[in-house]
Amino acid sequence: MRRTLAALTTGAALLAATACGSQEADSDSDSGDLTTVTAGVIPIVDVAPVYLGVEQGVFEEHGIDLRLESSSGGAAIVPGVVSGEFDLGFSNIVSLVVAREQGLPLTTLTNGVTTTGEQGADMGGVFVRDDSSVQDAADLEGLTVASNNLKNIGDTTVRQSVREAGGDPASVEFVELPFPDMPAALETGQIDAVWAVEPFASIIRQAGHREIASNFVDTHPELSVAAYFASEQRQAEDPELFADITAALEESLAYAQDNPDETRRIISTYTEIDQGVLDELILPRFPTDINRESVRTLADLMVTDGLIDSEPDLDALYGAKE
Q1: Is 128:134 a contact under the CB 8 Å cutoff?
Q2: Under a CB-based contact definition with an 8 Å cutoff, are residues 255 and 58 in contact?
Q3: Tally of CB atoms within 10 A around 241
């Protein structure tokens, strides 16, 4: 039986507005000789490792007072990193590839988040109402699908799910809709399908609706979805600092991967997700290295779908890293 979404979405709808002031206040009082570094992040499940790293003292051990500043998404974080407002940021891979193609001098530091690689059990997917006639991604032909941003990682990977299922991705219409608005829009029939990530994917599942595609998995079973990044100029100014930042990020990612219960717990400190949803979240994986083969696959799809004109220079995106 379909559950009412109102109670579930009350906390989740506040997700994008939740800030991280408590951590910033704590670091003001005992930063000592630490180097203050500001990171632009999105208050979602994916960035749990950096919050754990701050809490566990990982960044302090590397001489860093990390200040986490919430932003609405990669579209806001990328210019913030370029302008120097943030020393580093978190964004999905598609946004970073597009930024490089537009001449913005950004390079990755570490991987950010990776698909689970499991069909029907990933950090996000494509969902339809429980009474929809849609059975798989091919049935999305001629229908409307919601994505949080257009011409980005959502619609790019959903199109690949349609291809994989034998459908025509060009016939699918994508509409822009914020993640917090997706559960209600699907429930009321305002949209045929939604591409949702956690925690909104779990909210939709708990309401009794169906997942018809795991679009990240369909794109690549080891898809690197997002990364931590910085500007080339900022890294050149202080290479030792960024070596320390990268080491701390890698330790934080490894800690989150090895401690899923801690990862769930920390999410409740910087979001207002309902506990019933938090308990059911499908966590992503947090490997430290970007899977370059998966990024190449993603870049090829970006060319196919017209997000970029030609094959990008991915080596430039990775910087000097081997």
Answers
A1: yes
A2: yes
A3: 17
Report the C-alpha gap between 304 and 321 in whole angstroms: 28
pTM of the model: 0.88
User: Are 271 and 244 within one domain?
Assistant: yes
Question: DSSP letter at 138?
Answer: G
- In this prediction, residues 290-306 reach a mean pLDDT of 97
Q: Give the domain-ending residue among 196, 219, 242.
A: 219
For residue 136, give Cα distances in angstroms to 37, 61, 264: 45, 49, 31
Same domain, 35 and 160: no
- Judgement on whether residues 106 and 251 belong to the same structural domain of the protein: yes
Position 46, amino acid:
D
User: For a pLDDT cut of 70, what percent of the chain falls above it?
Assistant: 89
- Whether 83 and 268 have beta carbons less than 8 Å apart is answered as no
Element (H, E) at 107: strand 106-114
Phi, psi of 190 (to 5 degrees): -70, -20
Do residues 28 and 77 both lie within one domain? yes
Chain center to CA of 92: 6
What domain count does the chain have? 2
User: Does residue 3 lie within any of the structural domains?
Assistant: no
Q: Which residue has the tokens 């994986």?
A: 285
CA 17 to chain centre: 16
* Domain region containing 246: 8-115+222-318
- Backbone phi, psi, residue 186, to 5°: -70, -45
